[in-house]
Structures are given as structure tokens and as C-alpha cells.
């Protein structure tokens, strides 16, 4: 799963390696890795103000500080 930040400067992805990863959308490089899921991450999204990332998949939903 992939979602763009509200301002379009970043993307967030979740995948079957249990990791949520931030990306710099302007230059296409990987940024911080958010670890905590114990199984595949099936869904990611941003809060409207871009301050929080929500991820879900492994029978849990996690909130991450995007700042």
C-alpha cells in the first residue's frame, strides 16, 4: 500500500516485510523505517494535516508521528 502526504512531499508505504517506510517524493529516496507490525502491512494513510500516519494489517492499527 502507498499513500501520498497531504502536501505531496512524502509518500508512505507498507508491505509484506512488516515495515512502514517513508519516502522523499521529490527526489525518490527512502527515509525512516517504522517498525512494530508483526505481519504484513496492508494499508497506510496520512492524517489530513500530515502529522500522523496510520497503518494496519497484522490484526492491529498503528498510529505513527510523522514529524
Overview of the structural elements:
This protein is mostly beta strands and 67 residues long. Helices cover 0% and strands 52% of the residues. It contains no helices and 7 strands. It has strands at residues 2-4, 10-14, 19-24, 29-35, 43-46, 52-56, 61-65. The protein has a 4-stranded antiparallel beta sheet with strand order 1-2-3-4, with no helix packed on it. A 3-stranded antiparallel beta sheet has the order 5-6-7, with no helix packed on it. It is globular and about 30 Å long. The chain starts with a strand and ends with a strand.
In short:
The protein has no helices and seven strands. The chain has strands at 2-4, 10-14, 19-24, 29-35, 43-46, 52-56, 61-65.
Q: Please indicate the percent range of residues in DSSP E strands (runs of 2 or more).
A: over 45%
Shape type = globular
Distance between the termini: 20 Å
Bin the helical content. Answer: under 10%
Characteristic terms for this protein:
4-stranded antiparallel beta sheet, 67 residues, mainly beta, 0% helix
Could you outline the blueprint of secondary structure elements for this entry?
Elements: E1 2-4, E2 10-14, E3 19-24, E4 29-35, E5 43-46, E6 52-56, E7 61-65
Amino acid at each position: 500500500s502507498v499513500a501520498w502526504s497531504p502536501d505531496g512531499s512524502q509518500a508512505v508505504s507498507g508491505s509484506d516485510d512488516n515495515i512502514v517506510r517513508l519516502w522523499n517524493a521529490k527526489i525518490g529516496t527512502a527515509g525512516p523505517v517504522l517498525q512494530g507490525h508483526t505481519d504484513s502491512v496492508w494499508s497506510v494513510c496520512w492524517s489530513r494535516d500530515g502529522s500522523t500516519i496510520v497503518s494496519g494489517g497484522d490484526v492491529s492499527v498503528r498510529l505513527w508521528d510523522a514529524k
